[in-house]
Amino acid sequence: MASFSERMIGAAKLSVRTYEEVEADAHAWRQAMAVVLLSSLAAGIGETLSISVDSSPRLSIGGLLASVGTALVAWILWAGLTYVLGTRLLPEPQTRSDMGELLRTMGFAATPGILRFFAFLPWIGWVIWLAAWFWMLAAAVMAVRQALDYRSTGRAVVVCAVGFVVCLMLQFLLIFGPG
Asked: Domain locations in the chain?
């Protein structure tokens, strides 16, 4: 069994073996949550530092906690939506999964998000942020493909995309309300 850091590296490399190992390890949910926490903290710090580059950098504990809380809710929501979409609406014949498998694999898919810490860097911070975001989406596709035992990467892309859009809409409604 790989260590936590080896799993994170494997997840970032989009390693099928890593995602299969995480999927099979029912105890890896704590590690998956830690990855989501690290990724969201890195993003929160990177954003805060990029906003305050011209002034003295001040990290808001409240802002970081909000970032972490939002990331945890989004992770659970996206995994839940993906589970329903992938196992009930768009399964392949061999699809066998549970919510825990998706939480674990999708949690590790947040690994590239740790690079968002570097969003504060002038001129290239936004490039790093955008690259990390697309990398996390690619990792999520791999996570879904493995957790749902899909043979088709295209189906995993569709399930991820639909789940992601629905998740964003729900978050938007929670933040801004229906009106």
From this structure: 4-176
